[in-house]
Amino acid sequence: MVREIVRKRLDTRRKETPLPLTATQEDLIQEEIRLLNQLLAAIERFPVTQEDRDSLEEAAENLTSLFLLVIVGEFNAGKSAFINALIGAPVMPEGVTPTTSVINLLRYGDTVREQMLADGIIERYYPAPFLNDITVVDTPGTNAIIREHEALTKRFVPRADIVLFVTSADRPFTESERAFLETIREWGKKIVLIVNKSDLIRNDEDVNKIVGFVQENITRLLGFKPDIFPISAMLAQQAKALGDRNPSERQKLWEASRFESLENYIFTTLDEEGRIQLKLLSPLGVGERIADRYLKGTADRLAVLRDDTATIDRIEQQLGLYHADMTTQFAYHRTKIENIIHKMNARGDEFFEETIRLGRIFDLLNSDKIKNDFQNKVIGDTEKEIDETVDNLIDWMVEQDLRTWQAITDFVDRRRLSAYEDDMIGEISGQFRYDRRGLLEAVSRKAQEEVDRYDIDQEAHNISISVRQAVGQVAMAEAGAVGLGAIIVAAASATAVDVTGILAASLVAGLGLFILPRKRKQSRQEFRRRSEELETRLVAVMNDQFETELARSIQRIRDAISPYTRFVRGENEKLAAIQEDTTGVRNQMRTLRHRIGGGDVPAYPVESRPALDTP
Fold this sequence. Notes:
With 615 residues, the protein is of the alpha/beta class. It is built from 18 helices and eight strands. The protein starts with a helix and ends in a 19-residue tail after the last helix.
């Protein structure tokens, strides 16, 4: 964690570079360390990149290091010349070709010396008193050496306490300079503009026009108003080189160089209190920039997940419609089956009325004839009608099941091939994109495999067998290859046949013809009661079985997309928590910036910036 790293090195650094801090400033440092810790803890779940982790740790460490003054600008703007003028000695090489191809650190030393550090940085030492409190960083020309430009941006701009941006009066504030200034500004750094080579401009009026041009464009394009100093580093060097030999010439050159106001700013305005304030603000700029990046990345991911959630909701809507359609259709087909049985029962009533009477007494004694008559007049085509109705229902159910699978495949494929999948704005870590794409491809593959191997006839056969077995258990019949209609009709008509047999036996026993009407009525009522009871049980078990098949079909689809669904819901919860925590830290950093006296650092989207004016 950041706190452990800072505390471990705090005592050593203070022994090397003691900071005269007040109790309030000490408290501010501890508050900043706490916030940097909180920010790191919040974005760890994103997960945080190693580069950003290092930046936060370095920002915390820099709270106890020397004040870092970083000089940036394009090749041949005069950065090295400015440093030499500031020191009053040729400590940095100058030339018309890119002489600074590496980063130079200028520190205080009793003697003039230099050494190459392991990471390719040259460390130079010079006995200038102000270097006791300030480390100067000279950087490569940002338009000349790309590798060093990247190293500067990644390593030294986030660590800088103040940035002196050097531009040339003969080509002030170019587009590439604007772009680089924008990058520096995003880190929340204090920026001072130096317009060098003012000696090339004919008069003061033109110099003031150039300063006004730079000021106007920076304010308009980047949203802040920097301090701007027009100077001639060359004339300042010449003035300091004269020493006491020619005071009048020295004064003339010194005034012409305009260097005094800049030097006073660095050594007087940036006094101990000013440097400490910038030192306190610098880590906040790093933290705020990183927080904003992760908030942007979190917002972008949440936007993608909102569309993912919408896709999942549409799939659930599709499944809901599928269930509703199936329920409606089953109710329609169930009613048809009930009507078929009701008609059979009505024919049974009519059969009893016509059969159990005195004129049919000899037929009643012939049970085979009664059974044949019952089969022809009551049963008729009932079996065939029931089987056709159930088969139509099963075929429709299978068709809808396949159509739903195809719809789910289309939903997932459209989401998988969404236009912005490959260039997600604000993506900080590629793991989210990789995991999400992998899940979508796996779900798409699974759904397509289900569609490709879907056997309509086999599915219909499986459902038919399942329904026949369930109905057979209630009707006490073997399912086997017997049709559903045969099972239902056999169960429903068994009572009628039994009643006729019992009636015939009763007549033979000599119960008397006078009881025949009463027996007919009792037989019809018993047949109706038992038939309706059995019908209710059979329809109920059919209803349960179709609901089971429907639930199984829907669950198969939900199981297929469940990895994607779990990922979307889990990431939504995680990112919402990251967003809340990071926003909280960001707001506390903004409050702390105001307490220190730094104001706000506004950010402007690139697409909203106006075009760059030319002088």
